[in-house]
Design brief:
Family: Belongs to the malic enzymes family.
Number of strands: 14
Radius of gyration: 24 Å
CATH class of the largest domain: Alpha Beta
Number of helices: 25
Organism: Sorghum bicolor (Sorghum)
CATH architecture of the largest domain: 3-Layer(aba) Sandwich
Shape: globular
Number of domains: 4
CATH topology of the largest domain: Rossmann fold
Largest sheet: 7 strands, mixed
Pathway: Photosynthesis; C4 acid pathway
Strand order of the largest sheet: 8-7-6-9-10-11-14
Mean pLDDT: 91
Keywords: Metal-binding, NADP, Oxidoreductase
Helix content: 40-55%
Distance between the termini: 21 Å
CATH superfamily of the largest domain: NAD(P)-binding Rossmann-like Domain
Protein name: Malic enzyme
Strand content: 5-15%
Length: 593
């Protein structure tokens, strides 16, 4: 039906009316719904299965403008009497909605209000998010989305995204074809086994792909119509969920081994068959034992990206490159100690090693010698090699065993301490003081989410280092005043990287993701950090300019894809930054014919 909650718009006729200037192709695809900035001034026909009008138009989130429908539009689309007589501007609607959201004191209530708006009026939701990104990002994503996933069963209103379960084995292509949109550019998929630092949330992990794709659109400008959130439900080992009468997923223990592998193989094959080889599949919040395996398995034949491994690595590498503007020297001049050797820690380490090898013109094996890892059993050294997982073995260096983090700091004497273990308060006063005695400007990155899992708070880092630390965190922290100086903690948020990275992949028509494209994204982010930012203690630019940042990252990623011969969108645009900006989604209401 025309007013279906998903937008119900798979029926734009071939060669039908579309919102495009003659000859304009944006994002590598026709702009059928008038979503890109390049087509902002073009009138659009609100096509659904037929031209949406009347009550169905008001129920279609893609085309609904609420009280912003003009008198002419109300007349043409049979809306007279279905709305109060006032006509409001989109800016006034936004102002009213922001006031409504701010009235809620509980973050989860704010989250629910914003999700309701997204299902009611898509453009207003994105305009609100884009214009108030620093205030609303923690609501639609970390840390609030974690609580939303925990309570997803009880706050569930209507389905968002696509659910693929073990019940669909042998029929996954059929499930994908049930999604109304046929032109998909980015898929974010999870199996819910490792949601943030909260563990196995099973089917309730859907909040993560939904939130992630909202950021692809708001921050990176990827069209919402081209985004598809998917949860693969293979069961859950969370006993609380298995006993919860409101749990929305399969009530069985997780499938593993061949059964799991065959389901994922079928899923990836179905995605490729249904959407082609240029759809970016982002793996999100898979457990460590699957995350590396899936990325390595599919990266040679599919366009895949793991934000927990590659996205986190890129944003941290960018922070380290920016921090060196204050500390001095190159990456190769310093030593890095990681607390946590899971997918995030080793992913960051690998990208840092790759960048060192590129900068210093040495082998990656040689570059890895500047990087040390600590896991739950202590410093990773060669005497432990027999018991280590494969991805840890490459960081096992010659050294006597060290059992704890403090001992490792004293023995290795690193410039930077990077935490990704999800163990709250593990950067103790003694650890920070040891880092401060070794370095004039110790780099302390407490990356674990949510806030309760953070290795230390911003206040602790600045206080225990006597205001000398260059600090970054995975969760947001308020500014800290120490000795009359105001420090603004930098949030090493993956949202700096993945939206612009995704846009770069889309606009270039890339068919594979290479490590050099991830490096290009990190370098593109670090370039945006100015001396003024460094003076304030910031190793990332302010989020208020995130769309400018994303356009520059997209241009760097696209340029690298073209240089490597991996881009299919030809000819190559002359100015990739301007092209990226023109392809970005614009939430401004369109005029309807």
């Amino acid at each position: 039906m025309a007013g279906s909650g998903e937008g119900g718009n798979g029926g734009v006729p071939a060669g039908g009316e579309v919102a495009m200037a003659p000859g304009v192709v944006t994002g590598g695809e026709e702009d059928a719904y008038g979503e890109d900035r390049a087509t902002e001034d073009q009138p659009v026909t609100p096509w659904a299965v037929c031209i949406a009008s009347g009550h169905s138009l008001l129920r279609d989130p893609r085309h609904n403008k609420g009280l912003s429908f003009t008198e002419k539009e109300r007349e043409a689309h049979y809306l007279r009497g279905l709305l109060p007589p006032v006509v409001l501007s989109q800016d006034l609607q936004e102002k009213r909605m922001l006031q409504n959201v701010r009235q809620f004191q509980v973050p989860l209530q704010r989250y629910s209000a914003l999700m309701d708006l997204q299902e009611r009026n898509e453009r207003l939701f994105y305009k609100l998010l884009i214009d108030n990104v620093e205030e609303l990002l923690p609501v639609v994503y970390t840390p609030t989305v974690g609580e939303a996933c925990q309570k997803y069963g009880s706050i569930f209103r209507r389905p968002q995204g696509l659910y693929v379960s073990l019940k669909d084995k042998g029929r996954i292509l059929e499930v994908l074809r049930n999604w109304p949109e046929k032109s998909i550019q980015v898929i974010v998929v999870t199996d819910g086994e490792r949601i943030l630092g909260l563990g196995d949330l099973g089917c309730q992990g859907m909040g993560i792909p939904v939130g992630k794709l909202a950021l692809y659109t708001a921050l990176g400008g990827v069209r919402p119509s081209a985004c598809l959130p998917i949860t693969i439900d293979v069961g859950t080992n969370n006993e609380d969920l298995l006993k919860d009468e409101f749990y929305i997923g399969l009530k069985q223990r997780r499938a593993t081994g061949q059964e799991y592998s065959e389901l994922l193989d079928e899923f990836m094959a179905a995605v490729r068959q249904n959407y082609g080889q240029k759809v970016l599949v982002q793996f999100e919040d898979f457990a460590n034992h699957n995350a590396f395996t899936l990325l390595e398995k599919y990266r040679t034949n599919h366009l895949v990206f793991n934000d927990d491994i590659q996205g986190t690595a890129a944003v941290v590498l960018a922070g380290l490159i920016a921090a060196l503007k204050s500390v001095g020297g190159t990456l190769a001049d310093h030593t890095f100690l990681f607390f946590g050797a899971g997918e995030a820690g080793t992913g960051i380490a690998e990208l840092v090693a790759l960048e060192i090898s590129r900068q210093a013109k040495v082998s990656v094996e040689e570059a890895r010698k500047k990087i040390w890892l600590v896991d739950s059993k202590g410093l990773i050294v060669t005497s432990r090699k027999e018991t280590l997982q494969p991805f840890k073995k490459r960081y096992a260096h010659e050294h006597e065993p060290v059992k704890d983090l403090l001992g490792a700091v004293k023995a290795i004497r690193p410039t930077a301490l990077i935490g990704s273990a999800g163990v709250g308060q593990s950067f103790t006063k003694e650890v920070i003081e040891a880092m401060s005695s070794i370095n004039e400007r110790p780099i302390i990155l407490a990356l674990s989410n949510p806030t309760s899992q953070s290795e230390c708070t911003a206040e602790q880092a600045y206080t225990w280092s006597q205001g000398r630390a260059i600090f970054g965190s995975g969760s947001p922290f308020d500014p800290v005043k120490y000795n009359d100086k105001l420090f603004v903690p930098a949030q090493a948020n993956n949202a700096y990287i993945f939206p612009g990275f995704g846009l770069g992949v889309v606009i270039s028509g890339a068919v594979r993701v290479s490590d050099d494209m991830v490096l290009a994204a990190a370098e593109g982010l670090a370039e945006q950090v100015t001396p003024e930012h460094i003076e304030k203690g910031l190793i990332y630019p302010p989020f208020s300019i995130i769309r400018k940042i994303s356009a520059n990252i997209a241009a760097r990623v696209a340029a690298k894809a073209y240089d490597l011969g991996m881009a299919s969108q030809l000819p190559r645009p002359k100015d990739l930054v301007k092209y990226a900006e023109s392809c970005m989604y614009s939430p401004v209401y369109r005029t309807y014919r």
